[in-house]
Design brief:
single chain
């Protein structure tokens, strides 16, 4: 991958984070990266996610917390009055 592609993809991820959560700050962007990748894997290869969840129950619990946090932030962002 080229450096230009990496920068462009980071811009896409930042914008997605902004639209999803209201912020594109680095920490939230990283959480969205995990959330998006895990969600995509769970859709395309559910057996793999089931296997991973079984092998890494602590990781599964962290992912559950991360998904809940993103949902909460998204709900707060969507319900925020327009400025």
């Amino acid at each position: 991958m080229t450096e230009q592609f990496t920068e462009q993809f980071e811009a896409l991820l930042e914008k997605y984070s902004e639209l999803l959560l209201g912020s594109g700050e680095e920490e939230l962007k990283e959480k969205v990266r995990y959330y998006a990748l895990y969600t995509q894997i769970s859709i395309t290869m559910p057996a793999l996610v089931k296997h991973w969840n079984h092998i890494y129950p602590d990781g599964k619990q962290e992912m559950i917390q991360l998904i809940a946090e993103i949902k909460q932030l998204n709900d707060a962002h969507r319900n925020k009055p327009a400025e």
